[in-house]
Each structure stands twice: as C-alpha cells, then as structure tokens.
Design goal:
The chain has 9 helices and no strands. It is mainly α and 275 residues long.
C-alpha cells in the first residue's frame, strides 16, 4: 500500500534549542573584581605599607604626592595613602561586627514579632511606618546629635540608627549601619566648628550628608546591578529629599539645641547642689 498523507496535516517541527547562557552574563564582573581588590588591599595593607598611618612626621607637613608619599601628607605629616588603607580595614571590621549584631537583633525581633500576639506585631509595623513616611529623619537626627556632641557619641548614635534601619528595611544586614557609623564619626569631627547660633555650616553639612547617602544607595543598590538611570533617580528621589532635609534640619537642629541647653543647665544645677 502506498504511503499517504492526511489533508491539512503538517509535520511538527522540533522546538528550537536555545543555547545556554553563560552564568556570568548579567554579573558586574568589573565591579566585583574592583571591590575584591579593595577589600584584599585593606585586609593585607600591613604587607605593602611602608609608613605608619599614625606617625606624625612634622618635617613633611602638607607634602604634595611624590615617590615617598604617594597621596601626599596631611597637616600633621601623616601619610595619606597609609591612612586610607588602614582606615578601610577599620571600616570593614566595623561593618562585619555591625552585620553580625544587626543579624542577631533582626532574628530576635523577627521571632518575637512572629510568635507574639497581633498587638505587638502591629506596634512594630506602626513604628516602621512612621520612619518610612518621613524620609531621612534618622540621618538628620544622627548628623545633628553627632555635630553637637562629638564623634564618640556620634558613632554610638550612628550604630543605633543603622541597626534600626537594617532591622526594618530590606537589603543586606550592615548596609545602613556601616554608613551611619561613618556619618556619626565624620559629623562628630566637625564638632570643633560647632557654635549654637551658627546655622549655615550645619545646613551645608546636612545637605552634603544627604547627597552622599543617596549616592551611596545608588551605587550599591542600582549601579552595581547595571541600573544606570541616574537622571530619574536624581529628579525623583535626590532633589526632593534634599529639599526636605533642608527644611527638617532647621527644625530638628533648633530642637536639639534647646534640649542640649536644658540638659547642660540641669547638670550645672546638679553639680552645684552636690558641692
């Protein structure tokens, strides 16, 4: 019998075989390698550094970059190149410790919220919503407190605020803590320029802190994932938050000045009563 073909029947073509994409296609290879080199350099800086980062050589104060001092020296004669690598290692150590601590706190509060009743869970959610509805409030509070009280207390305020942010916001643990600790430290250094009636410098430093904070988030949340729409991020997020920060800093700074003044008066009265 001759072979025959049904009318309208068409041979089924085999589905196309798609080539398997390489695992590294969407990974930011250059950024990962650069970050790995920086981290490795910070961890092994004692191997290649020839200068003590804390040694003050008054014969070479404010020296320009040269063969002996690659990045020059500061006003106290300390090697800036060595200080950068040594400071990077300290920042990594703080970030790792903050990550471990924030992880422990997050596990504790997450377990507490999940096992406790609805009232406690609702309380945690309301607290989170308050800080979400007021952008950068913690950043302003940490900056103002650090600027008024110094770098030691500033780092403590930054640690508390960073842990709170890591606890209630998405992202890797320690992401916010690392930034807020450094913010408290740098703002506390500027305490030597602190005068109660001088509002211009706190405003400028607050705006700079807000800008650096948003760039920090953009680089590590968007740029490293190849999301390069910086114009939209600038117009939609950075500029509105800078305007909000300017207005809020005026209010918060005056409020904390008032509180700080009252606390000093109370301490003076207490000391006089003791004497």
């Amino acid at each position: 019998m001759d072979d025959f073909t049904l009318v309208g029947a068409r041979p089924q073509a085999a589905p196309p075989q798609h080539a398997k994409e390489p695992w590294h296609k969407d990974l930011p290879i250059v950024s990962i390698l650069l970050l790995a080199l920086i981290v490795l350099g910070c961890l092994l800086c004692d191997v290649f550094l020839t200068k003590d980062p804390g040694y003050m050589d008054l014969r070479h104060c404010s020296a320009a970059p040269n063969r002996e001092f690659l990045f020059g020296t500061d006003t106290m004669g300390r090697d800036i190149f060595s200080m950068i690598w040594s400071g990077g290692r300290l920042s990594l150590f703080i970030g790792i410790c903050a990550t471990l601590l924030s992880t422990a706190i997050a596990v504790f509060f997450g377990s507490l919220s999940g096992c406790a009743g609805e009232k406690l869970d609702a309380f945690f959610m309301r607290v989170n919503e308050i800080f979400i509805s007021i952008p950068n409030l913690l950043l302003i509070v940490v900056f103002v407190c650090s600027f008024i009280e110094g770098r030691e207390r500033g780092m403590f305020y930054g640690l508390v605020a960073g842990l709170f942010m890591d606890l209630f916001y998405s992202g890797p643990f320690g992401f916010y803590t690392l930034f807020f600790i450094n913010l408290g430290y740098v703002s506390g250094i500027c305490n030597k320029y602190y005068y109660e009636d001088y509002i211009t410098l706190p405003l400028l430093l607050s705006l700079a802190s807000d800008l650096i904070y948003n760039l920090y988030i953009y680089v590590f949340r968007f740029l490293i994932r190849n999301r390069l729409n910086f114009g939209h991020y600038l117009v939609s997020i950075i500029i509105p938050e800078i305007i909000f920060t300017t207005v809020t800093t005026l209010v918060v700074y005056r409020f904390f000045l008032f509180i700080n003044r009252k606390l000093k008066e109370w301490e003076q009265r207490r000391d006089s009563n003791i004497v």
